[in-house]
Amino acid sequence: MNLFDLSGKTAVVIGGNSTLGGAMCVALGGHGAQVAVVGRNSEKSENVVKQIEEAGGVARSFSADATSKQDVSRVLEDVLAWTGRVDVLMNCPGTNSATPFFEITMEEWDRIIDVNLKSVVIACQVFGKHMVEKGEGGSIINISSVSSGPPLSRVFTYSASKAGVNSVTQYLAREFAPSRVRVNAIIPGFFPAEQNRKILSEERIESIMKHTPMNRFGEAEELQGAAVFLASEKASSFVTGALIRVDGGFGAMTI
Question: Taking the domain 10-252, which CATH number applies?
Answer without folding.
Answer: 3.40.50.720
